Amino acid sequence: MKRLSTLALLSALALPAGSLQAAQILSPGLTGCAAKRDAIEQQLQQAQSRQNSGEVRGLQKALKENTEHCTDEGLRAERQAKIDKAKAEVEERQADLKQAQAKGDPGKIAKRQSKLAESEAELKQAQAELDK
Question: Where is the sequence biased in composition, kind Basic and acidic residues (predicted)?
Answer without folding.
Answer: 62-96, 115-132
